[in-house]
């Protein structure tokens, strides 16, 4: 590709830009960001070659990548499709997919759009958090591929594969339902854990001195960006509430077992759950 | 020290033995374990120099280290104190401290015992999981130090410091109350999350293909040993139920906010919880 525009120069967009550079997939990276500090940082860090405004950038690009919070992406995508050149592809990288697909489903240029979700990230944000290897050996989902031009889907799939990212296809609805359990729910459990211990800390200043690597691991996602996660939680509300209900049920189960203090029951529950090891090792 | 006996050749005991060897703090490591496979593995891996039965080992040791599940430690400690040589120290490494201190509080040789909890571990278990660096830059708690001989406390503190482990002192009650929040609760949240997703997986085989590093981080502790964690949950039941109640309150808060879908409220909650970053970075 000659020109690629990255809209949103944070962790995800910045890392994608760096990976495209590293693999020689793009000749020139054009950055678009409403945050002036992020523009400057992205140039300084060599994430993009130049900064432009959205429309000018789109008009001279082969590929446009939306890596901004999902509410912003849903606002800007229909506008981009209004003036997108015939051969240009626009892809998003948001963590919910039904909303954005619904938003443009009747747009005459819907075929130029490919809905994707690379399942990769860290708890950090901004251009400084970006690194080229973020997508290595991760999975990216392409949703509702039949709504996009076959050549566009093929191209986006090939880009991900060139970044050593495995690609799966599914409907936007299936994506949002599944991701509620294996990503969005994890963020809920981490934020709730962080808030619980912060509340206790008000009276017990020394408590964090006792926090070990296990606590850090389970609470890590509570450092995640509120700008990114607020719209995700709201958009995927319906699936997420189901996931939270199922989770609360398990917390209640454990609470009851601990109250009853029956070692056989607790041991059995923990042993059953150890099965997660088998499944994660398969990946 | 000439001879050190390690009772329990798993992750914790094995790692402690390897660290004592690496730093030259012990001339000979004697292993005690009821599991014959663990005995053989520990010898093969060079974790201990020989295997012996408990009483013979204790009678010729300067230090005895209990690194077995807390219910087993509470059973064996009074017996060891019955025949422990005058100058020998016995320390435990269990994750709850009030129970074991209560168990031996009136024993005539209570002063030979030092109650400790090194806040270190991984989700793995057994001799093969052991590594010398486990305790490096971690924190170890010594509980109720005034109940032990001052020379014994001094010696145990010095050993931990030689392993580059920071030492804090507190009462067994304070330890158990705090650790419920920053360690035991994290295990509850992980096991509940693991169980929730395993239940969904029964119908949705592909769901784990979509699990990213965030899910793996929050669910990691669900791989932990049921033998170790069942007695911890039961022994620290009272504190842990309080911690679970506080946590359930936060899950309910998040659930309600998501149901109401007010972005300002959610954003505020997530931003407040980001404060965990400041605290963990201080460590």
TrEMBL record, chains A, B:
SUPFAM superfamilies in alphabetical order: 6-phosphogluconate dehydrogenase C-terminal domain-like, NAD(P)-binding Rossmann-fold domains
According to its UniProt record, this protein's enzyme class is: oxidoreductase
Any single GO molecular-function term of the entry would be:
prephenate dehydrogenase (NAD+) activity
Q: List the Pfam families.
A: PDH_C, PDH_N
Q: List keywords of the entry alphabetically.
A: Coiled coil, Oxidoreductase
Q: Record the organism.
A: Faecalibacter macacae
| Name recorded for this polypeptide | Prephenate dehydrogenase
Source organism superkingdom: Bacteria
What EC numbers are recorded for this enzyme?
A: 1.3.1.12
Does Oxidoreductase show up as a keyword for this record? yes
- Coiled-coil spans in chain: 237-264
Task: Please provide the Gene Ontology terms (biological process) for this protein.
Answer: tyrosine biosynthetic process
The UniProt record lists the Prephenate/arogenate dehydrogenase domain at: 2-283
